[in-house]
Specification:
This protein has 85 residues and is an all-alpha fold. The protein is built from 4 helices and no strands. It starts with 7 loop residues before the first helix and ends with a helix.
Length: 85
Amino acid sequence: MKRNNIGGVDTAIRAVLGSVAMVWAAGLADAFPFLAVGIALVATVILATAVAGVCPFYSVLGIDTRPSVGTRRTEADSGLAHQLR
C-alpha cells in the first residue's frame, strides 16, 4: 500500500479542479464528444487522487504536501481534508 503524500490544501484544490473539469466535460459532450471523454478521464484521475490521498507522480518525484510532524494543525486545517477522504 502506498503512503499518503497529498495534504489537505492539495486535496481541496484537486477536488475543486476535478469537479469543474467533469462539469466542463459534460457541457462539451454534445459538440465535442472525443474531447469531452478526454477531459472526463483526466478529471476522473484528479478526483481519484484527491479521494485516495496518493499521487503516483508525487511519489516518483519524492514530493509530499502533507504538513510536517512538528507543525501544529488546527481544527480548520484538517476539517476539509477529512471530509473529502
